[in-house]
Every structure is written in structure tokens, then in C-alpha cells.
Task: structure prediction
Amino acid sequence: MATFGQKFDATLKKSFMYTKVKFPFLSLAIGFMLIFVLQSCGLLNKKGEASNKSNRKGEVTGVAKRIRWKQNLPIDMVPIKAGTFWMGQSDEDIAYTQASLNKQITISEFFMDKYEVSNNKYRQFLEAVKSGQLDTDTPTTLKAAPTFDINELKPDSTVWTKSFAFHYGDPLMEFYFDHPAFDAYPVVGVSYDQVQKYCEWRTYHLRANDDVEFDLPAFRLPTEAEWEYAAKGGKEIAKYPWGGPYVKNKRGCLMANFKPGRGNYIDDGFTYTAPVDVFAPNGFGLYNMAGNVSEWVMDAYKVTSRAQTWDLDPVYLDENEPKKIVRGGSWKDISHYLETSTRTYEYQDVAQAHIGFRTVMTFIGRSASMDVNPNKRLKR
Ligand SMILES: [Ca+2]
Ligand SMILES: [Ca+2]
Result:
């Protein structure tokens, strides 16, 4: 009869043999399964680059030796990273327009002018058109040079007297655009149609004169949604570009150039417009997204456009609608118009003393390559 010790030994031996035999099969099976799963998810594949093995003649691998594309940031622009936000009113709809309903919107990345376009930058456009020299001797673009009629491009200085009844605007009419004292001030008296021409010129001017073989995307007006997303500066709830809900900071300073109180224009330091780089920038590094001058955006005005447009990069274009949207409020407006969500409009061929603009450029390429922290305040 076997003793307890012998029995124990036999059991041990059996289980040892079992383990020794079974284990390799089990691990092999698990290994194969793992490889199968990883492969089916595409996780074991290489980066998907074209093969450069010389014995692969006849394979389709993409055209070789293409340049690496990196989109340079044009001067005085800031990158706006892609994101999602709640477009629409952030406070009471005081006029009951119901024109700015809330909707979650996603915006792709783009570059935006830090400042409203200044008198002097607009002057460069006029000088270029006047001289007829839109490019260097060997333009680096295949696109034909646009043609402009200088008489259609000049800002309308009479807006300083025409726009307001019983107002002495003659000094501004005489000096605002032409005098060097106002070089750094935002250009006004430019219609929606005129600012489109500026975008066309700036696009050609860059493409023709830079040394980049592949053209950059065009300069253009921002869409209304891009403008509002940019104005909020990366903040979730932003009644004003600095957040809000007040127009003064903790030290009691007004945050923008507008019409504080019931007509105390000078309370913020400026009676009419202010230079484009004064007042603190918002979270994206953009100046005067509230106040100073209202800004043309690309969209036509329609009360119900919010409901009609898509929720990814929306835009409402209508050539038969002469009313185009302006945003941000101006030196002549009360604070309601400075809210990031307030929508107003002007007719596309009408110039005003309180309407200017800024341009944007679509970013092409991977969003991740835009190394921007939206909450970090950029230095001037
Ligand atoms: Ca003011
Ligand atoms: Ca503005």
C-alpha cells in the first residue's frame, strides 16, 4: 500500500507534467489571439509610409520627394486651435431678436489677425495698387495678378460727418485716414465689398512675393462662427472676450473702447477709435474683439441662419442678401453690442465710421501641429 507521502509525490508529479505539457499550448494560443486582435485593430502596422524598397517597381507608393509642408504664421497673426464651443447669447436677449440661439459648434484651426486692420496697412494696399507693382520680377505663384480700380478702394472719409446727425466730424473727415497721427488706428469707412478686395490683394501680395513654392491658403474674412469662437478666447462662458460678466476689471479699469454709461465716451480713455494694439488681448492673443471698431464677417444676415447651418465650421452665404454681419461693437456702442454673441448687420455696399475688419487664413495640415495653449495669455 502506498503511503501518504508516495501518494502526494505522485499527485505532484502528475500536476507538474500537466503544467509542463499544457502551458506552452496555452501561451501560444493566447499569443496568436493577441497578435490577431492587435493586427485587426491596425495597431501592429507600420506608420503607413510608402515603401522605398528598390525591388518594388510597379507598386503605387505616392510621388517621391515631395516637400514637407509647414504653414508659416503670417505677421501679426495668431494661431487659433480647433475646438468646440457654445455659440449664442450669453446674457438676456434684450431686443427679443431670437437671432442668437445657443448651439454647440466645432471650429477647425485657423490663423487670425491680432489686430483690426490699421489705416497704414490699408494704405499699403492702396499704394501697391496705385504703383501697379503687385509682385516682384519673378512671382512665386502661378495665379494671375488681380486687377483693381483704385477709385473703388479708398475709404470713405465722409462717413465721419454723414453717419451721425448734428455732429461735428470735420476734423476726423480731414485727418483720420491720411494723417500719420492715425496710422495705428483701425481703418473705417470701408464697405464689405472693399474689404474683400483687401483680402484678395493681401493673398496675392504674399503668394507672389514670398519664397514658398506652394501657395498658402487665401486671406479672407472670418466666418461669423470663427469670429465668435475666437472672441471667446478659449473660455467656456465668455460674455465678453475677457470672460465677464462686467466691463471693468478688479481695479475698476474699463476693458475696451466703447460708450460707457449713458454717453461717457471718454471714460475708457478714447472719444472715437483707439490704436489697434491698446487694451489687453483675450486668451487667444486677439486685441479689441470687443469695441473700438465693429468688424465685418463673411456671413450674410438672416435671423434663422443659426438653425439652418451645420454645426461644423458653419457659414451662411447668400449673394442675394445684401445685409452682412458685423460683430463686436464699436467706439459708439453701449456694452450690449460688445458681447461676444451679439449679432448686428450692415448693407454690404455701405461704409460706416464705426466698422472695420480683420482677416483670417485657414490652417491646412494636422491640428496637433499647432502648438498653442488657448488659455495662455500671449505677450504683446
Ligand atoms: Ca470710448
Ligand atoms: Ca473690434
Observations:
- Residues 7-66 form one domain.
- The pocket of calcium ion (ligand 1) is lined by residues 257-258, 265, 268, 270, 331 (CB under 6 Å).
- The helical segments are 4-40, 119-131, 159-162, 170-175, 192-209, 224-231, 305-308.
- The CA atoms of residues 158 and 191 lie 13 Å apart.
